Amino acid sequence: MAPRKAAALRDGDRSLREHLIDTAERMIADHGTSGLTVRAIAREAGVADGVLYNHFTDKEELLANALLAHIDTVEGGLEPLPKPGTASVEANLTAYLAHGLALHEAILPAFVGLANQPAVLARFSDLTGGHQWRDHLTSYLDSEQTLGRITPDAEPEVAAALLVGICHETVLSMMLSHTPRATATPSVESVISTVLKGIIDY
């Protein structure tokens, strides 16, 4: 017998699978992932607990899809990333870092709640398929190097790792610190200026 349809879907076009992902995504955005249970998601979605297993192998698969949807929602509200060869490398990297900081500030709380759930993180990694902000940043730097706007001996992956580290350090410090920071967080512009001294010729 087919699972009963949630009341929220009776007059809509979404599938029950999409409804469950949307519900879990909303709960993650509102409360994070810590303590999020199948029962809580099912109740919020208006379905019986066991219905989830008609559409997902396990809780980990559902949460991984909800995390990806959460990131897509957050990124959809941010400014588009600049294309290689447009504006200046400095202006473009400034835009990339500002985008990355806003993205990480919105999504890192959800990932912190998954520190003891490596299976969810593994499923999420399988779903992303190289389409995360870091991958876009590395690809952008690779393209600028091909265009000759970054020196041939530069290492785009290392530069990307430095900028990702800035995002992690800045956001995690805000989340975990209960006292004022001893030193001021560097500005986006100062970070980019420092990174560029090692990858382009002025």
Structure in words:
The protein has 202 residues and is mostly helical. The chain has 2 domains: 12-66, Homeodomain-like (Arc Repressor Mutant, subunit A, Orthogonal Bundle); 78-202, Tetracycline Repressor, domain 2, CATH 1.10.357.10. The chain is 60% helix and 0% strand. The chain is built from 8 helices and no strands. It has helices spanning 16-31, 38-45, 59-76, 89-112, 118-128, 133-146, 156-176, 188-196. The protein is elongated, with a radius of gyration of 20 Å. The model has no long low-confidence stretch (mean pLDDT 85). Residues 14-74 form the HTH tetR-type domain. This is TetR family transcriptional regulator. It holds the Pfam family TetR_N.
Output the keywords:
202 residues; mainly alpha; Arc Repressor Mutant, subunit A; Tetracycline Repressor, domain 2; 2 domains; 8 helices
Largest beta sheet, briefly?
Answer: none
Q: Give me the count of strands.
A: 0
Give the termini separation: 69 Å
How big is the Rg? 20 Å
What order do the helices and strands come in, and which of them pair?
Layout (H helix, E strand, L loop, with lengths): L15 H16 L6 H8 L13 H18 L12 H24 L5 H11 L4 H14 L9 H21 L11 H9 L6
Helix pairs in contact: 1-2, 1-3, 3-4, 3-5, 4-6, 4-7, 4-8, 6-7
Describe, in short, the structure shown.
With 202 residues, the protein is mostly helical. The chain has eight helices and no strands. Helix content is 60%, strand content 0%.
